[in-house]
């Protein structure tokens, strides 16, 4: 059984991503990075990526190829403030997932991954 299966599969990842994207339109740092006409596409890509990373379907690779996160985010202005805000919004979303779905061990593993990704994507000085 994969991490993906242990936390409830796609519905859990959809809930995390939906909670995150619900905050984006009103966010002063991240909101401008997401064109309204591509919000649904961005949402799908993040859900596919997280599901795939944690052992779920390979939809991201099938639809988009190798994740290449740094390359795909290179044209966005991702400084330390943006990375911190991404983590804040993601934490808000994770906090909405009940512990019966995402226990402390799984939550900690997911958070550690999110911290690594946020740090890795910084591509501009402060």
UniProtKB/TrEMBL annotation:
It holds the Pfam family Bac_globin. This is Truncated hemoglobin. PANTHER family: TWO-ON-TWO HEMOGLOBIN-3. It comes from Corynebacterium epidermidicanis. Belongs to the truncated hemoglobin family. Group II subfamily. The keyword Metal-binding applies. InterPro entries: GlbO/GLB3-like, Globin-like_sf, Globin/Proto, Hemoglobin_trunc. GO terms for molecular function: heme binding; metal ion binding; oxygen binding; oxygen carrier activity. The lineage of its organism: Bacteria, Bacillati, Actinomycetota, Actinomycetes, Mycobacteriales. It comes from the Bacteria. The keyword Disulfide bond does not apply. Keywords: Heme, Iron, Metal-binding, Transport. The gene is glbO.
């Amino acid at each position: 059984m994969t991490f993906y299966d242990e936390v409830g599969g796609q519905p859990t990842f959809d809930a995390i991503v939906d909670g995150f994207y619900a905050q984006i339109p009103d966010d002063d740092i991240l909101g401008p990075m997401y064109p309204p006409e591509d919000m649904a596409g961005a949402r799908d890509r993040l859900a596919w990526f997280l599901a795939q990373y944690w052992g779920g379907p390979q939809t991201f690779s099938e639809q988009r190829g190798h994740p290449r996160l740094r390359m795909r985010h290179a044209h966005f202005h991702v400084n330390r403030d943006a990375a911190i805000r991404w983590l804040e919004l993601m934490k808000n979303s994770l906090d909405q997932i009940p512990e019966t779905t995402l226990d402390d061990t799984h939550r900690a593993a997911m958070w550690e991954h999110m911290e690594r990704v946020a740090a890795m994507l910084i591509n501009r000085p402060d």
